[in-house]
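--- STAGE predict ---
source: upstream dedup step, 1 unique chain passed
mode: sequence only
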Amino acid sequence: MEYQLRTYELREGAMDEFLALWRDHVVPARRACGFAVVGAWVDRERGTFTWVAAHPAPAGIDAAERAYLDSPQKAALPRRPGELFRSSSVRVVTAVDPDGGTA
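--- STAGE serialize ---
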């Protein structure tokens, strides 16, 4: 499994609109393309949203991301999520077993 740590700094006043878009449209579109949502966190004080997406990614996470970006599900989103960001960061991370090793 490959993981993406995705952090967005939202534009002032955009958090609730973004959360609805993410929950109602982005998550279903990602799931349709083989992604799973591991977890999501909001820091309203700082205006940030962080989530972890996972994909089995047999051809690699970059190929899985490209497939999502080119998908009809992504094209059908009612709004581009990036329009609501001030900034964003996506990092590929590796899970670590708390008892030792990598997962």
